[in-house]
Write a structure and sequence with these properties.
The protein has helices at residues 33-40, 56-59, 62-69, 145-156, 171-181, 186-200, 210-216, 225-230, 238-250, and strands spanning 2-8, 12-19, 24-28, 48-50, 72-76, 88-90, 95-98, 101-107, 116-120, 125-129, 132-133, 136-137, 163-166, 208-209. Helix content is 33%, strand content 25%. It has nine helices and 14 strands. The protein binds zinc ion (ZN) and fe (iii) ion.
């Protein structure tokens, strides 16, 4: 399995997946036609388009790519009227094969009502769209804070060594937010060194891993007593802490 990271627009990532045995080629969240097509050209075909959710910066190249390569477009069933060109309606926990690779659909509403992650169980790779970012999470647009919290917990419960490929390069601003409210976290300080190094040489900060995110991403650390204390929410539930953090980040 080859994964190519394709920077699109100002801070989006699309991902090309090439399954090397059968040559099956897929793309996750094609944002921009030209940037994606330049990479697809190396493989000469595009069998599948996988959409995590319906937002324009994730489906922008759906129709042009489908037209050029006759690809099949996959998305969550409840978004059948919002994902352009959709062919295959996926359901929660469904397993689906693209060539010899199999992914499981993880339903993670909150950012949007129909948001999903693609989890390649055998390879331990997850594409999390705008739900889990490196050191952050997406804004809650269509769901409740509680839904988003539960969705993040689903990702948190994947195997720790799962690689996480997210939809945006927001890591630096997420890092600054984490440092503000989790300033004694040594894992975070070490991660800062790594992030600064990557960004200074124009490298993507993705992928991270589930284990890494649990240690450093404040939105996965709502049960941490020190963070609760720092927020003045010593006796609050984890989901209340999450809500507070999400609100603070919205205006950070
Ligand atoms: Zn989005
Ligand atoms: Fe997005």
């Amino acid at each position: 399995m080859i994964i190519e990271i394709i920077p699109c627009l100002s801070d989006n990532y699309s991902y090309l997946i090439n399954e090397t045995e059968t040559g099956t080629t897929s793309i996750v969240d094609p944002s921009e036609f030209n940037a994606c097509d330049r990479i697809i050209n190396k493989y000469k075909k595009l069998d599948f388009i996988l959409n995590t959710h319906h937002h324009a910066d994730h489906i922008g190249a759906n129709l042009d790519l489908k037209k050029k390569y006759n690809s099949k477009i996959l998305g969550f069933n409840s978004d059948k009227n919002r994902i352009p060109g959709i062919d295959i309606l996926l359901e929660e926990n469904q397993k689906y094969k693209i060539g010899n690779l199999e992914f499981k659909v993880i339903f993670i509403p909150g950012h949007t009502k129909g948001h999903i992650a693609f989890f390649f169980e055998k390879e331990k790779i997850a594409f999390t769209g705008d739900t889990l970012f490196s050191l952050g999470c997406g804004r809650v647009f269509e769901g409740t804070h509680e839904e988003m919290f539960n969705s993040l917990n689903k990702i948190k419960n994947l195997p720790p060594d799962t690689k996480v490929y997210c939809g945006h390069e927001y890591t630096k601003s997420n890092l600054n937010f984490c440092l503000e409210y989790d300033s004694n976290n040594t894992h975070l300080k070490n991660k800062k060194i790594d992030i600064d190094k990557k960004l200074s040489t124009n490298q993507p900060t993705v992928p991270s891993t589930v284990a890494d995110e649990i240690k450093t991403n404040i939105f996965l650390r709502c049960n941490d007593p020190e963070i609760k204390h720092r927020l003045g929410l010593k006796d609050s539930s984890d989901v209340e802490v999450f809500s507070k953090l999400r609100d603070l980040k919205d205006s950070f």
